[in-house]
C-alpha cells in the first residue's frame, strides 16, 4: 500500500498540486516551464499528440501500473526514460514500426513544467482522413493570410508555413507506409538543403559584392584624390605659365620700347654726333692737307714740280 501511494503521489502532484515524490523529480536545474501551446502552437499545421510524462526506469512494474491507472487519461501512458532517445539504425527493417519512423523523422519535443517534471511531445500517430486533408488546406490558406505571406518573391514566413504543411503531409504518408514516408522525407530534406545552399551562396555573393563595392569605393577614393592632386598641379603649372607669359610680354615690350627709343631718340643723336665728328675730322683733314699743299707748292716752286689739281688732291687724301 505504501509503495502504491508513493507511486501515485507524482500523478497527484501533476493534477492537484500536492508534494511530488523525489523519485519522480527530474534532475535538471529548475528553469522556465513551458506548456503545450508554447511547444506546439494550436495553429501549427503539423499535428502533435498529447504530452506524456517521462518516468525513471528504476520503477517497478507495480508502480508503473499504478501510475498508469491513477492518471486522468489512462489511454496516454507515461514514457520510460530509456525509450525517449530512439536511434533508428535501419528504418526498413521489419522490427521498425511506423511510430518509430515518425519519431526518427520528427524528433520528439521535451519540456519541463512548473513542477520540474519532464515531458515528451511526439507527433500524432492518428491516420489522416479526407476531412483532415481538407482542414489542412484551409489552415494553410488561413496561416498564409494571417501572417501576410507574400504570394511572389522571397518570403521566409511563407517558406516556413509551407515547410510545416509538407511535414504534415510526410506524417500522413508515413502512418500509411513508413518506406514511402522516408522517401518523401528524403526529397524534403534534399529540397531544404538546396534552399540552404542557395541561401549560403546568396550570402556569400552578397559578402563578395559588398567587399567588391568597398574595394571599388576605396579605389575610387584614391583615384579621386589623385585626380584632385593632378588638377591642383595642373592649375599651379597653368598659373606659372601665365606668369611666365606675362613676364615674357613685359620683357618683349621693354626691349621693343628700348629699341624704339634707340631708333627714335638715341640713333639720331648718335648720327648727329657722328656727323659732327666727321665734319670736325674733315675740317682737320682739310687743314692738314692745306698745309701739305702749301709745303708742296713751295717744294714745287723749288723743284719745279707740276702743280696738282683738286682731283689729284682728293685722290691723294683718300689714299691717305
TrEMBL record:
The record, for Pfam families, names:
Ax_dynein_light
Q: Name one GO cellular component term.
A: axoneme
Q: Which InterPro entries did the record assign?
A: Axonemal_dynein_light_chain
What keywords sit in the KW lines? Coiled coil, Dynein, Motor protein
| A molecular function (GO) term | dynein heavy chain binding
Asked if the Swiss-Prot or TrEMBL record annotates the protein with the keyword Coiled coil, the reply is yes
Please indicate if the UniProt record lists Coiled coil as a keyword: yes
For this chain, the family text in UniProt reads: Belongs to the inner dynein arm light chain family.
Q: What is this protein called?
A: 33 kDa inner dynein arm light chain, axonemal
In its UniProt entry, the species of origin is given as Didymodactylos carnosus
